[in-house]
Amino acid sequence: MISAPVIDVERLHVSYGGFHAVKDLSFQVRPGEFYALLGTNGAGKTSTLEVVEGHRAATSGTVRVFGQNPRDRRAVRPRTGIMLQESGFSPDLTVKESVRLIGKLTHRTDTVERVLDIVDLRRKAGTRVSQLSGGEKRRLDFATAVYGTPELIFLDEPTTGLDIQSRDALWDAVDKLREEGSTVVLTTHYLEEAQQRADRIGLMHQGTLHREGTVAELTRTLPATVRFTLPVTAPAPPPQAVRQSDGTFLIETFGLQKDLYVLLGWAHDHGVELRELEAGPTRLDDVFRSIGNG
Ligand SMILES: Nc1ncnc2c1ncn2[C@@H]1O[C@H](COP(=O)(O)OP(=O)(O)OP(=O)(O)O)[C@@H](O)[C@H]1O
């Protein structure tokens, strides 16, 4: 049996005056899924999520969250954790008071101490929000997504301003939430984060869903690449390698393993050191760059 989607968006339109920011958008997020909604600037991601989160009414179309209208805050809010780009905690509250407030607003059960540990702010429990650093504020924003282990979590640019340790800690916490069964919706401009973690990606452009699928599905139509440089004394490399204007060699291939094998065999046979060797599947960046080219 296929379980009902957690989020069901059908033919959504969002207009601002005469401007159509979201046009005929449909997508679903399934229980336990990690879905990344990505897109070019001004694509309509925020407008879409504002409707899904219940902050904005759709101009037309249907949006259901847990089968309910997301504007019905009482039905949806207790099951949902939303980490906005700016949560807008009162600057005069302490960290501990802010986390306690999250508990009151969400009506979920948890302990402030547990949440402070997860977002690594226990040492700052008595500090006022106004005195937190940018990264600490961001971790406090994340507490809204953690408190009471909500069934559905929205993460809007969650790692912006976080150092690498805090990023790793945040993703570890997200992994744990997923193990508990939480569904995650991510928006980010850090494509690598989506590429590494998302089960599926929706790629928006100019108000519509330009592409949707797993990373493998999205990158399948573009070739993988191998790049390297050679010492000046090296003989000509295999013909698949094309010399670029900056002096590097590039192989674009749909048979990465085979072409890499040929290249490494050639280097070994000729006693040549391949310098700055990089080989990898197509990255999501390349899919983004191809938007607008067809
Ligand atoms: N309140 C508003 N009034 C008028 N136009 C708006 C309003 N909010 C957004 N827009 C426009 O709607 C379009 C989509 O905006 P939206 O913020 O949803 O895109 P986005 O995908 O989140 O963009 P970004 O990645 O740049 O944050 C943009 O062209 C934006 O200028």
TrEMBL record:
Entry keywords, A to Z: Antibiotic resistance, ATP-binding, Nucleotide-binding, Transport
The protein's matches in InterPro entries, at most eight in alphabetical order, are given as: AAA+_ATPase (IPR003593), ABC_transporter-like_ATP-bd (IPR003439), ABC_transporter-like_CS (IPR017871), ABC_transporter_ATP-binding (IPR050763), P-loop_NTPase (IPR027417)
Q: Which residues form the ABC transporter domain?
A: 7-231
UniProt GO MF annotations: ATP binding
Q: Which protein is depicted?
A: ABC transporter ATP-binding protein
User: Where would you say this protein principally sits, based on its record?
Assistant: membrane
The membrane topology of this protein is: Peripheral membrane protein
Known SUPFAM superfamilies for this protein?
P-loop containing nucleoside triphosphate hydrolases
